[in-house]
Structures are given as structure tokens and as C-alpha cells.
DNA sequence: ATAAAATTAGTACATTTGTTCTAAATTATA
DNA sequence: TATAATTTAGAACAAATGTACTAATTTTAT
């Protein structure tokens, strides 16, 4: 396999395990190459993080566009979206566990995230409108509360892993189940009574 | 003022501004003392963070116990609790902005947080039961959803600042208002229709 | 006022880190 | 096969950091 790809894999593994302060020397050692060689492929350490961020963003975009293309959006499609999302969140978990530090260190990532969230907010509100029209969501919820729900979804999606890391430390399958249950429960009080 | 207290103030200021990687040299320079002097008062850098964490925990405990002592818990008392909470969250915001990194670096803090959250979960559920009995909260919500709501509250409380830092970057009063509004909206769909 | 204790500044050191440089080795190309 | 391009390892460097140490200064106690 490509050395560049192998570096990204080793970096992802180590960042997820040891956090954002894992060094290029450790990343290189972890895959049995020299630090000099690593810096031949990635001149700056941050380039590795930027590349991993781009991978994450791409994988997420695919999930979102697949959700948007669904012929008829149901609660189930929303739930399966969250289950699939978690696989990506978990794969790149070091980003979410150290999100602010990364944003400070690499402002372009923060800027990218910011514009991404603005786009997503509109997409989610559109989905909510459909679910209201279809009688799945309640019709008596003020607009401001839907706006707050969108932000709530973003916060819980992005930081559930951090909370898990500080408390239960669930891994893999167990974590996925707990995350999905958390998201499902979030929607419960917004469902219309039928 | 006590040099030890002044170090804590300078550290808090710098950690909030520059993040968890602010150095003892910078903290000392920021208040016009030598690094040697700083290490006379705090042998290890982490001792500063631990002390700040203890301060935060103490201030929060006072808020929670004041809420628990209220003669009759209403929605208003819950809202004013969140408004007051935010002052403390904001004062020690570096902790929440770098929560996982701190937890990894100082395991005693993580352990303390974990047991704190277990205690708080019970306290919150007790409050919810009162609000249900008083007809303020809906009676048709399954127990599992209340449990999820508690976790939701913890996640949004602890990481709203991180989300804000990555998106809107609201400060002071504006941040407090947005946070409180977010928390209020969270409870809206759980209110009984009266 | 003097001795003792506490505080402070400044130097020094070992370690770590990102990165550069050089030369060797490997791979591709003609 | 000979040459050029790419890849790799390893040494070297400068900067930063935590913290230990020393000597001076300030404060406190007698």
C-alpha cells in the first residue's frame, strides 16, 4: 500500500489512542518508518490532520446526500442515518475529542466546519418541515424550538463521544447502540401522538 | 493579594485565551513574576489545573445545593439555575473547551467528574419527578427518555461552549443569553399542555 | 535590630519536538 | 543496462518546556 496512505492510517490510529499530541516520531515509529521519511510525504504535521479532516468531511457528505435523496423521509431513515453517522464519528473520533484544540490550531478547519454547519442547519430544517407535514412531528412547536433542536442535534452528535470518554468509556458496538438510543430519545417528545 | 491566588488568576485568564497548552513561563510572564517563583508556589503545572478544577467543582456544588433547597421547584427555578450555571461554565471555560485532553492528562479529574455525574443524574431525576407530579412536565414520557434527557442536559451544558467556540463565538452576555435560550428550548417539548 | 523563614529572580539542564539536510537505497525509465 | 527520479533512514539543529538549583531579597518573629 501507498506509504502516504499508511501514514494516514497510523496517524489516525495513534491520534484516536493517544490524542492530538501524538508526535510525528511516534506515528512513524508505529508503522516502522523513519521520521525523515514521514516528513518527505507530509511536510508539516498539520497537513496530516487536515487530510484526515477532509476524509471525514467527504464521508459525512456522502451520508447526508444519501439521506437527502431518500424518496420519502421517515423517522426510520433519520434513525438509520444516525447509526451510519456514528461509524464515521467513531472512526475519526480524535477530531471530536479534541475539536476545539484542532480548530484553534488549524483555522481553515474551523472555517470549514462553520460553513458546513450553516448548510446543514438549512437541510435539517427542511427535513423537519417534511416530517411535520407528514404528521410524524408535532405541529404545535414554535420555530425557535426547532432551531434549538437543530443545534442540540449538532452538539450531541459532535460531543457525545467526548461525554462517553469522560464517563462510561463504551467502545465500538456498545458505543454505537448507546449513541443511537440517545439520538432516538431526543426526538421522542417531538413526535405527534398517533 | 496572595501570589498563589494571583497565579491562579493569571493561569485561568491565559488558559481561557490560549488553551490548555499555555505554559508556566507565559503564565508567570503574564503577571510579571519569574517562572522559578511560580514553581515555588506550584511544583507541577498540573497542580494549577487541579486547583482550578476544584474551584469550579466547589462553585457548581453551591449552585446545585441551592437549587435542591428551593422550597418549591418550578420551571423558573430551573431556568435561573441554568443562567447562574453559565456564569461558572464561562468563568472556567478552558476546562470545557479542552475537557477530554484534561481528563486524559489528569485522571483524578476524570474520576471526580465521573462520580459527580452519577450523583447529579439522581438529583435531576428527582427534580423531574417533582415537576411531573406538579403537572409541569408531561406524564406520558417513558423512563428511558427521561434518562436520555438527563444525559442530553449534561452534554449540552458541558459542550455548548465548545460548539459556540467553533461556530458563532459569542462572548459574555450574548453567550449567556444564547445558552439559556438553548436550555429553555430543550425543555419545551416536555411541558404538559396547560 | 537580628536571626530565621519565606519568597523571588535567574540560570541551567535534560527532554521533546518539528523540521531540515545528506547520503544511501530503491524504483522507474530510456 | 545505465541513468534519472523517487523514496528512505539517520543525523543534526533550533526552539520550547518543565522543573531543579542557587543566591539574593523581603518578610516575619523574637
Would you summarize the structure shown here?
With 194 residues, chain A is mainly alpha-helical.
Order of helices and strands of chain A: HHHHHHHHHH
| Rg of chain A computed from alpha carbons, rounded to a whole number of angstroms | 19 Å
Q: Which assembly state applies to the chains in this document? A: homodimer
Low-confidence stretches of chain A: none
CATH architecture of the largest domain in chain A: Orthogonal Bundle
What is the number of E strands of chain A? 0
Mean pLDDT of chain A: 95
Distance between the termini of chain A: 54 Å
Number of domains of chain A: 2
Helix content of chain A: over 70%
Structural classification of chain A? mainly alpha
Tertiary shape of chain A = elongated
Largest sheet of chain A: none
How many helical stretches of chain A? 10
CATH class of the largest domain in chain A: Mainly Alpha
Write the CATH homologous superfamily of the largest domain in chain A: Tetracycline Repressor, domain 2
The name CATH uses for the topology of the largest domain in chain A is Tetracycline Repressor, domain 2
Mind explaining what this structure looks like?
Two copies of one chain form a homodimer. Helices cover 78% and strands 0% of the residues of chain A. The first copy, chain A, has two domains: 1-43, Arc Repressor Mutant, subunit A, CATH 1.10.10; 46-190, Tetracycline Repressor, domain 2, CATH 1.10.357. With 194 residues, chain A is mainly alpha-helical. The first copy, chain A, has helices at residues 3-18, 24-30, 35-41, 45-69, 75-91, 93-97, 99-105, 107-133, 143-166, 172-187. The first copy, chain A, contains ten helices and no strands. The interface between A and B is large, with 43 and 43 residues. Chain A binds a DNA duplex (30 and 30 nucleotides) through helix 3.
Amino acid at each position: 500500500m501507498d506509504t502516504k496512505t499508511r501514514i494516514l492510517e497510523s496517524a489516525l490510529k495513534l491520534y484516536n489512542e493517544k490524542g492530538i499530541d501524538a508526535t510525528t516520531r511516534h506515528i512513524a515509529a508505529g508503522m516502522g518508518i523513519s521520521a525523515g521519511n514521514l516528513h518527505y510525504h507530509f511536510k508539516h504535521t498539520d497537513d496530516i490532520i487536515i487530510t484526515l479532516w477532509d476524509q471525514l468531511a467527504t464521508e459525512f457528505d456522502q451520508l447526508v446526500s444519501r439521506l437527502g435523496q431518500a424518496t420519502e423521509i421517515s423517522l426510520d431513515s433519520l434513525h438509520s442515518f444516525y447509526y451510519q453517522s456514528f461509524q464515521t464519528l467513531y472512526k475519526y473520533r480524535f477530531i471530536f475529542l479534541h475539536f476545539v484544540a484542532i480548530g484553534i490550531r488549524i483555522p481553515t478547519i474551523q472555517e470549514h466546519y462553520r460553513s458546513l454547519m450553516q448548510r446543514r442547519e438549512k437541510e435539517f430544517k427542511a427535513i423537519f418541515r417534511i416530517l411535520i407535514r407528514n404528521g410524524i412531528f408535532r405541529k404545535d412547536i414554535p420555530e425557535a424550538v426547532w432551531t434549538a433542536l437543530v443545534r442540540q442535534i449538532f452538539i450531541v452528535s459532535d460531543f457525545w463521544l467526548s461525554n462517553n470518554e469522560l464517563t462510561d468509556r463504551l467502545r465500538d458496538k456498545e458505543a454505537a447502540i448507546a449513541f443511537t438510543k440517545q439520538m432516538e430519545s431526543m426526538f421522542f417528545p417531538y413526535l405527534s401522538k398517533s
